[in-house]
Design brief:
heterodimer; A: about 220 residues; alpha/beta; Rossmann fold; two-stranded antiparallel ribbon; 5 helices; about 20% helix; about 25% strand; globular; B: about 750 residues; alpha+beta; seven-stranded mixed sheet; 27 helices
Chain lengths: ~220, ~750
Amino acid sequence: MAFRIGVVTFPGSLDDFDAARAVEMAGGTAGPLFHASDDLKEVDAVVLPGGFSYGDYLRCGAIARFAPIMESIIVAAEHGFPVLGICNGFQVLCESHLLPGALTRNQGLHFLCRDQKLKIENTKTIWTSGFTEGQEIVIPLKNGEGSFQCDDETLDMLESQGRVIARYVDFDPNGSRNLIAGITNARGNVVGLMPHPEHAIESLTGPSEDGLIFFTSALQQLVGR
Amino acid sequence: MKLDTVANATANPDTPQPWVELGLKEDEYARIKSILGRRPTASELAMYSVMWSEHCSYKSSKVHLKQFGEKAPKSDALLVGIGENAGVVDIGQNYAVTFKVESHNHPSFVEPYQGAATGVGGIVRDILTMGARPIAVMDPLRFGLADAPDTRRVLPGIVAGVGGYGNCLGLPNIGGEIVFDETYAGNPLVNALCVGVMKHEDIKLAKAHGAGNLVVLFGAKTGGDGIGGVSVLASETFNEAKPTKRPSVQVGDPFAEKVLIECCLEIFKADLVVGIQDLGGAGLSCATSELASAGSGGMEIQLDKVPLRDPSLSPEEILMSESQERMCAIVEPSKVKQFLAICKKWDVTATVIGEVTSGERLHISFNGELIVDVPPRTVAHDGPVYNRPIEKPAYIAERQAVTINIPMPTSSTEVKAAILKLIAAPNIADKSWVTSQYDKYVQGNSVLAQPEDSGMIRIDAETNLGVAVSTDANARWSYLDPYEGVKLALAESMRNIATTGAKPLAVTNCLNFGSPEDPGVMWQFAETVRGLADACLELGLPVTGGNVSFYNQTGSVAILPTPVIGVLGVIQDVRKRTKMGFEKAGQDIYLIGAVDSNMSGSEWAYLHGEIGNHAPKSDLAMEARLVELLLEGQPIFESAHDVSNGGLAATLAESALKNNIGAKVELENVAVALFSETPGRVVVSINESSTNSIIALAGKYQIPVTKIGMTGGSELIINETHISLTELSKAHTETFPKLSG
């Protein structure tokens, strides 16, 4: 039986359908989860998709963090449940304190959509195990508030513990500290990533198929659990 | 203030009324009184004033637009035609596609961000109203000169507004145009196109049928924004002496629209509506009168039930408000509970505000008192119709007499300088600074997006069925000859569809003009409509709908006549689409179509301040053959890119820069070959093994093809002129960041 990866829909989620398609294309089964229920429906992992949850009003991810589904996800994640937050999902993870730091307005002050080169730096997480260390990939980046910021202490911790999973290469799209594109928690089960792997799963509609590896990685890791 | 009821209006026939301030003419006010047999109430006056505005009633354009019906080609593809919120075409496999382009020009000048944002919001609701899931947007934009102060004021806001709203809705932005000309200074054009898809059986119409069925208003609460947007704002010429019109611009909330979309789609899926209409221009006045008059006519509305953001709004303000993100549905009583439950799931406010009656009049009450009692058709459809004076403007002959005198480069130094100048010109330069502010990836079905010749969306991931959409206008040609200009715009848009491998199927349009009260502008308009109707008939492409925007002028200076033509095409297998960039080195480059020396209306002439002489004549029979050639030849084309604005020079530079693959090209009469914009041409690259095929196609369709060179290398080489791709790219990409800096 294929593993089930839940995809959460908040009001204002946009890339939930794409994330579900990526899960299916990677060989898993996508399970729709709705923000208003705290039932995780026995999924094996969860993706928090991109979009503008609750209109991104107040602060990106600040309201979504209080959704009933997040209460269950926070508890499960603290016990090793795999969670991938993409773009707005990453923002939700930071607001939930499952990941440190915050995503702020792009340095250029504009929404930016581009094919972005990344270097994968940590292949030990559930979501990045299928990459080779140092592998360069190209996936879409699209956000207005993607600049990763944290205090020096946190930055040192992330760097010294190897918790930066991906960094921007060749071009700094948003002014993130140390060109950070994605990070993980200490345990490696929670990953937040600003660019969009779910939009790079087939060359027909994306810049590459590199994004699929995030999803196949998780499915392979689930087998071994 | 005392409520102006129907009884009060009858009892006090001589109460002075603000019909002038509401934009009505004296004879129009008299006509309302004659329809009602009394003076209108304040609320009725509000409704008539917005619905009889130029924007809503098409009173100056109607007599011309009927040609689209009279000259309509026979088409099996058209499922819903002009008159509904948007036309619907059959693309096969039981899929139906709806698409439409609309203007939001005036609001975007007054308040660039919100004007542009709500332009996107409005067209998306039109598409949604048909029962379709919106799947893509496009935005043809036009501005004054790129470095003019007002352009720098409006452009960043308009681009951010288009992006801010569309991105937040989760709609990929897959194309459009950005054009600069001084006539758009003070009159920027913000046109917004949306495409939606549904199954045949899911098509919805804006009709209120069945006495006893309920009228449900749902979505955002009604506020004081956009009051009189269609009448006092969209239907008048800007004049510096008048007070600011900012309160007439609506304020958008894309999040509210996103949940409204999901809510509507779930409601449609459960088959819970009899009819549905969005609230856009003219707000509730439009929705109630249109729904009622399209059905049996009778409707009762309790206006005090409308949920308000601002409780101080008067009834007439509620009727005129253009608050965004609202819809009005007709629902059978037995289905209301389920309808309201779905709204609750999405946190969408929904309120029953009235019901369909067996009568023939639209009755609106406020706190139990009757304030509107009208035949709805007189509000929605029987507005005034003007056959405005038409006169061929004197400039036409003057401009045609002009001899174009521009430098035509000959030496390799001159050719190089000319190419670099052209591709750095704001109209030709790389637009990534703008398009990178739009999400083109969301929904995961964008097969092609800007700067490709057309945007392409996969409709079905199993069968790979897809649609392509392109919008085009060449306003300079329309200025010199509006009849030919619009035909050429249609031909270009159709060609852009076929260049990517899709078959053109249907046409939409947004006709942007100056004041209809100027006989010269009316002549431009009449010629344009005649040209477009004739061209659509000749090409067998149905017009599915459109939009007219008049009064795009400041003082006596009108914009160039700008008919933006959108063409929708269908492609059976999106995996076979053809892209614009050279794919690999060592492939033969062919020019399909012949060039002539007419530089009239070209970018090269414009760059030297010359707009004159005779615009090219369209050859639609040839254009139709070219489309057939492109479709049949599609399997052998490694790349294909239309030759249009900027001529062959721009086409070659763009094809080379796309994938950083150079080319070596040999051209006779090099300046004309590079900079003439003779229509009906496409540059393709093919493998040498396909040589016989392309020659056979040329013979079959009687269109000349010329081998002009070969792909490869890191330079664009034209005869003896060498330009490195690095240099070419620098010139092409620097313009916009510099302008925005």
